[in-house]
Design a protein that fits this description.
Structural class: mainly alpha
Radius of gyration: 17 Å
Number of helices: 7
Distance between the termini: 7 Å
Shape: globular
Largest sheet: none
Order of helices and strands: HHHHHHH
Oligomer: single chain
């Protein structure tokens, strides 16, 4: 059985960085930092400047492990306790949910709630309830 490790300081640091990035993006470009929207706009940008800021955000998102390597001298260890097929299925479900929900947890949960958007509050509550049910079923009903 895979045990989830509680990492309060890393979680606090990561959350603070996400919050700072969201505020900076809103302050400089007037844009909401929703990861799925940024990714979708990267593949279908309105113009070159629209593509550039999206590329910079995405590069920052994927360069984290390289930064950890630079600071600590070793790559972070990532343990995924499910099969590749489960990751693909989960990714498709999340993608469909983000499409129907008009955004993801970063856009609704971080930026939308901060703006007191009723739609984002409902969307985030729905994400969290679905997550709790999924974890319960996987860990306690199915036994994964």
């Amino acid at each position: 059985m895979f045990e989830t490790v509680f990492t309060p300081f890393q979680s606090l640091g990561g959350g603070a960085l996400i919050g700072i990035a969201a505020v900076l993006l809103m302050a400089t470009l007037g844009r909401v930092m929703g990861a799925t929207g940024i990714l979708a706009g990267f593949f279908q940008p309105a113009d070159r400047s629209d593509w550039l800021w999206r590329a910079a955000i995405l590069a920052g998102m994927v360069s984290g492990p390289v930064f950890i390597l630079f600071v600590t001298g070793e790559m972070p260890t990532v343990q995924v306790p499910v099969s590749t097929a489960m990751l693909v299925i989960g990714g498709l479900i999340v993608g469909v949910g983000a499409t129907f929900g008009s955004g993801c947890t970063s856009g609704h949960g971080v930026c939308g709630i901060a703006r007191l958007s009723p739609r984002s509050i409902v969307a985030t509550a729905t994400f969290m309830i679905a997550t709790a049910i999924t974890v319960f079923v996987i860990r306690h009903v199915i036994g994964g």
